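re: that chain from earlier
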Amino acid sequence: MQLQGIFSIRFILGGLIFIGFIVFYWQSLSFERFVDTPINWPDKNQALVVEKGNGLNKLASQWYQQDVITSEFYLKLFAYLNPEFKQVKVGEYQIENGETPRTLLTKLKEGKVIQYAFTIVEGTNKWQLIDLLKEEPNLIFDLAEDSAEQIKQLNLDWSNIEGWFYPDTYYFSKGTSALELLKRANQKMREVLEQEWQNRAVGLPYKNPYEALIMASIVEKETGIPSERDMIAGVFIRRLEKRMRLQTDPTIIYGIGPDFNGDITFKDLRTPTPYNTYVIKGLPPTPIAMPGRAAIHAALNPADGSALYFVATGNGGHYFSDTLEEHNRAVRKYQLRK
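^ sequence. v structure.
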């Protein structure tokens, strides 16, 4: 009887162990299927925003309540078994087709947030740049309105922010500070300007790299034709050396400011401003736009020659003249022919 009872107990225990093994095996398969089964994201066009304070446990509860995942427990178990997934990074994430709990937590762990692009185009001035920053919905605009405060925020050594942001495309995540983006653009401009300054031609009439930046901004605004940049820089360099006024229209436009209506009048030519190079001698006090590397290089490596004048031909290019008489003939031909 005792042996029969022991056999019965062993049989029951064996059955329970077998059932437990089956349950465990089934649960394991179910768990594995869960972590690699696409989630039920409600709107494929809507990004996932993880805000500060939203840990994995909170996210798991939210997603389960929203029917995004089928098991809150399994998601937390996956993170428990893989502790590196417990740390999720704040930001905005794109949910891809076929996104699974495993790939989603990997994305949150690595901080693979959505990247937006902001482009500063060569020749953009500070007013245009500030307007574009204000219009960018994914940036937080935190640049001061006061010029002196802007200088402090950006830690600049000069009295104006104009010209100090390198034209390029900058990538950022949602909620990035506009000031942070500008600091990146400023750092790149400093680096490029220093590189070009170290490789400048000899005998240039610049006291420092800032004056070269001013000249580069004028060259940038005068032509968009690559082959003309060093020629135009050469004209302006020779005019500076001869103490001739630069007489360049883009400086007049900049001196008028953001309210310029598109037409330069004879009155504008005669109206004194710090930027009117038809009136002042030498360079204007600051750059008039954001120059690219090519314009900076041209300003620091001007073309040799004897031309002192140039006039737009109407097809995007310019006609260069050595003398005032030749220049006046070119003006009559290209500008006054109508």
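The chain has 13 helices and eight strands.
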